[in-house]
């Protein structure tokens, strides 16, 4: 009989650590779900009060934005329109005033320019320069030679007005208005000389240019009025926005507090506190929601009590 070959001795169990110097196969990392499950109670911890405060702020912020943004936009548009319209009206009024002064000065200076009476022109220029907003008055002949010129010393003004006046002068130039000084023709037909002198003197009845009346206005008072208009408009808009914000905060508080109570009640019901009830103090849809949550909580509590009795 043949002898059976000896059986191989069972191998020793392999240690997880392996022998020194032996290469171990790389371990596969656990999936994220397993790691999340191993978090324990920390992963299932209820939200803290900070998250509730954040939710409360978010609700109130949304309500405030919904109530404040349309009003703020309307106040901004209407305020800007009113301010810009008033500023343009002041600009147009000052320009019309300057041209009117020049138009009045031109016929008054006709005789002085025609006769070369510089003293009379000087007195006329001084009288014109005493009017409000007038900075300088100049009367020239037809060739541009100055016959009379009067300048007023600028009055005291604020730093902001001085800066705005310098910026306006550099960008748009001075407020200068001109009016032509012409000779007023006397029709010969009215004097009865037309038939005697003949047609040669009929052409002399046309007006001729004698000189120019130049008036420069100061924009300081207009700029001060514009600054006051902007300040009053901004102050009024700020008051309207503050009042609107106050009403919006009150309205958002009245609307957010029932929502926060409902949210807290739902959270307590979800954690098993079936005896939770919501005060039914609101009206409309919120009141219906409060009554519905109370009815649902009562039904859940009765169902749990009935189940416990059966057990």
Descriptive report:
This protein has 311 residues and is α+β, with helices and mostly antiparallel strands. The chain has a domain at 58-233. Helices cover 59% and strands 10% of the residues. The protein contains nine helices and four strands, in the order ααααββαβααβαα. It has helices at 32-37, 49-108, 110-115, 118-129, 159-172, 188-191, 194-197, 220-270, 284-310; strands at residues 134-141, 146-151, 175-182, 209-217. The chain has a four-stranded antiparallel sheet with strand order 2-1-4-3. Helix 2 packs antiparallel against helix 8 and helix 8 runs parallel beside helix 9. The protein is rod-shaped. The two termini are 75 Å apart. 12% of the residues are buried. The model is unreliable at 1-6, 8-22 and 29-45 (pLDDT under 50).
Order of neighbouring strands in the sheet with most strands: 2-1-4-3
Enumerate the spans where pLDDT stays under 50 for 5 or more consecutive residues: 1-6, 8-22, 29-45
For the sheet with most strands, the description reads: 4 strands, antiparallel
Mean pLDDT: 78
Helix content: 55-70%
Question: What Rg is obtained from the alpha carbons, in whole angstroms?
Answer: 47 Å
How far apart the termini lie comes to 75 Å
Helices, by number, come to: 9
- Total count of strands: 4
Structural class: alpha+beta
